[in-house]
Amino acid sequence: MSMRRMGPLHGLLRDKTPRGPCPLTMAQSLQQNYCKNPGEDICKLKRKLEEATQKRKEAEAAAEAEREAAMIKNRVDKCIIEKTKAFQECVEGSADKQQQDILRIMMGCLKTGIRRICADSVMSAFCREKAEAGANKIRQMLKQCGEKLPKGAGSNREPNAVDLIQKKCREMAESKKLQAPGGNQAERSRFAQKVDQCVASGWKEVCSSRSNLSEKEQVELDRMQQCVCDQIKENCRQQVLREMCADGGQQPKRKANSEVLTFKARPTEVAEEVPEEKPSPPPKESLNPEVEKCVQAKLQCVEGFIRSLSGDEATARENISECARIKLREQCEAEIQQRKLEEEIQRKKCLEKRARREAEMQQRKLSEEKARKEAEAWRAKCMENRNRKEAEKRARKEAEALRRKCQEKRAEKEAEAQAKDDKCQPGGPGGGAEAVVNQELLKHFRECLFKKLGGPHDTQPGRKVTIAGAGAVGMACAMALLCKGVTNHVALFDDQKEWAAAERLDMLHGSMFINNPRIEQCNGVAATKDSRLVVLTAGNRPKPNETRLDVAQKTADIVKAVMPALLEQSPKATFIVVSNHADVMAWVARKVTNLPYERCFSTGCHLDTARFRLFIGQLLGIAARSVHGYVIGEHGGSSVPLWSTVSVGGVRLQEVLPVIGTENDPMYWSAVHKDVVEAAFRVIAVKGYTNWAIGLTVADVVSAIFEDSHRVLTLSTNVQGFCAVKDEVFMSVPCVVSAHGISAICRPKLSDWEKNRFLKSAQTLLEAQCSIKV
């Protein structure tokens, strides 16, 4: 017999009671035909059917749970992706780099919070959908009842009547089983049991979904409660019949999966599918307030991001913040440790620097003490040498006086003899051999006083003066030459042609007041053609507290570039170098052009000599022209004032004060030379440059050349062989100026102090010359 046929047979056997001979005869017939013990076979068949039905229901429940779990997982994943994307956009769009760094550190905590928030929100929505589905079933039953009952029916009930729905819900809350009236549960049929179970399930769903109905719908439910109760029973009868018919003719299609059955326990367990990180260990509270302050500050920077992620979920926000505290605390501790380490390193450096400074100060004190002792020894030696020289000087004077006396006697005798001879000679006194002897003595005397240079040279006719460099110094030279009437023909040359043209126009506009000079247009180096003199002022302007030697190399490159072109245009010209450093630049200009020394030189200490005389005249209250003295050596800090030759009205100041200008000078005349050295720097500190004084100095030198005056000026030229200088060094000494430049150099007679200073100045300039790349 098939399973489909046994299903209805099973129902007939359980629902019908024997009433006569026909049913009994049918049962006996069945017993004889199919089995020896029919009751035992039917029980086995019944159990098999129940087991198959239970397995099918479990499989369907498991499939439904699996479908719901997959749906919830998809929704959670979609929520995580959306929130993570929004979070990353917020991080990348943040303008504050500090916030970006903190949020990257908190990335793991924030992602964990995002997972929890998404799981909670999706499960809440799922539960709401379930509740709404139950409410929809109640609405459907209310609709069917409304179609069956006439309008207003079912609302009249007695005042003391018990609310059926409330009673059912109360029984469900107290976990009481619904029982069918009349009879024991064990004696009821399987169909009745299934119906009761379905009705209990239906009422449970009505009770749980009743709160989701609107107030109006609850009133309708209360009015139609009996109809709803009947509707639930009717629906359950039909459902049970369908299930029992299906159970009688079908086998379960698949077995339940043990792993999938775990989802049937409760829907909220679906959230466990969301991958979560392991919970962080409980935060270890730091005892360092500085660390907690750092953590709090970083959390405040990103509080807006945390609030935007968690919304109103205070628990989720607290979890994210607590996780972030742990990670931020680790970073803050590392940052504080690093800062302390850097501070310790800096402190050690400061201690080492202080120790070095103290060692340097100690070394400096020892050096100063040593220098003081050496100075005292040197002073004692100088005193000894002075005493010896004074003794030698007295001895020489005595010897000179004796020699002079002898010469006078000899001269008297010779004069007497000559007078006797003159009486016999027609030429008379003062002629012949005596004149020849005097010329020879005069020539020897001149050779002892001067060193004659080459010349005379063929000079360029006219009085054209070229100013190479139209800066402040160059224009001061041009104005001094024109205003003093030294020349009436000037040419300006500069690599900035527009600047030179503007300066020329500026002078031409006032040319009527300076005898209408001829100022040639600056159209390149060709404007300098056939110049009698070329004044080179091109170079870098010295800055405040910058010595002339500091700008030497920069200016040397300019001199090397322009000198060959200027010499090509004016091969007979005399070149006066004014560019800083003047001594070194004169040596560079002579080196690149190979001109004779007398035609290429610098103004040197001529301006220093003028300042020297000015300051002495101011102290003595006389005109600077009435003071006679010179400054030689470098045109700069190592220049040498010749105190041994300074005189006023024929009186040498050294005869009045023998120690004048030295370290033992009680009047500190050495401050005069100090003022001479610092004079230019005082002007540069305010103006940025000096120009008028050097312009007038150049005009004085050019005037001496044009006039062939043979005046003695302190100009810078080669002093090799003078005062024990063995190398070719350009420095200032008194020179005789003639029509072609320098015609002779005076041989200075220097004291020991002056000679030592002169040699030091020569060494300074020699080092400067060696540092120039020619």
What does this structure look like?
This protein has helices spanning 3-15, 21-34, 38-93, 97-105, 107-148, 164-173, 190-209, 215-223, 225-249, 289-301, 303-310, 314-422, 433-449, 472-483, 497-509, 552-569, 582-593, 606-620, 653-656, 670-687, 692-706, 752-771; strands spanning 450-452, 464-468, 489-493, 518-520, 533-536, 574-577, 600-602, 627-628, 631-632, 640-641, 647-648, 651-652, 711-718, 730-738, 741-746. It has 774 residues and is an alpha/beta fold. The protein has three domains: 39-272, no CATH class; 294-412; 464-771, Lactate dehydrogenase/glycoside hydrolase, family 4, C-terminal (L-2-Hydroxyisocaproate Dehydrogenase, Chain A, domain 2, Alpha-Beta Complex), CATH 3.90.110.10. The strands form four sheets. Strands 4-3-2-5-6-7 form a six-stranded parallel β-sheet. Helix 15 (497-509) links the parallel strand 3 (489-493) and strand 4. It is rod-shaped. The model is unreliable at 1-36, 155-162, 176-187, 250-280 and 424-437 (pLDDT under 50).
